[in-house]
């Protein structure tokens, strides 16, 4: 039987323009593997392991997170699903920033027209924003109930058409189930809070016996344009 050709870590680093520290990190995270020979403790790689490194680095280059790569490698999400999720996340971020730009443009026009941006109109706008935020909080609380009930289909009327297309119900269901695996019993739905950085973003926490999970909702007006999960510190 032909001996399997092993490539030293230094050659892999040069081939992919990546540091050995990065490769060690991915190995510690369990998304790539290396081979050690009896003669040397240095990391070496088989052709199959090199192909996996190429896949992982490609996904990282397009912004896919380590957690999402793990889901892909475990078969929990397809390649198309994780790319759709990343695209939806970026679109939601762009929508949020565009709204801020629109508000800044309106403020600049008011300044050019020598209007007082701190007058009663500004106060009116603040009251409108507070009302809109309260309505968003109500939507998030409803969505939180639907999530814990497993009624994922009821979430989708609150989603933008883009988010519905980019994150099918099966994809969100898989992400949620994977996120709570090993978390134990749900103790309570935590408090929802508005992001300090943008009123378009609301965080909703879910407290389990062994972990706290957070769902990030990104709004445009009263429509959810982005949604993804993360673990709370």
Q: How would you explain this protein's 3D organization?
A:
This protein is of the alpha+beta class and 233 residues long. The protein has 2 domains: 7-61, Multidrug-efflux Transporter Regulator, Chain: A, Domain 2 (Orthogonal Bundle); 79-231, Roll (Nuclear Transport Factor 2, Chain: A). Helices cover 53% and strands 17% of the residues. It is built from 8 helices and 6 strands. A 4-stranded antiparallel sheet has the order 3-4-5-6, with helices on both faces. The chain has a two-stranded antiparallel ribbon with strand order 1-2.
Q: What's the story with the biggest beta sheet?
A: 4 strands, antiparallel
Mean pLDDT: 85
Estimate the global geometry from the Cα principal axes.
Answer: globular
CATH secondary-structure class of the largest domain = Alpha Beta
CATH topology value of the largest domain: Nuclear Transport Factor 2, Chain: A
Q: Provide the low-confidence segments as ranges.
A: none
Class per helix and strand makeup: alpha+beta
Q: Largest beta sheet: what is the strand line-up?
A: 3-4-5-6
Tell me the strand percentage band: 15-25%
User: How many β-strand stretches?
Assistant: 6
H/E series: EHHEHHHHHHEEEE
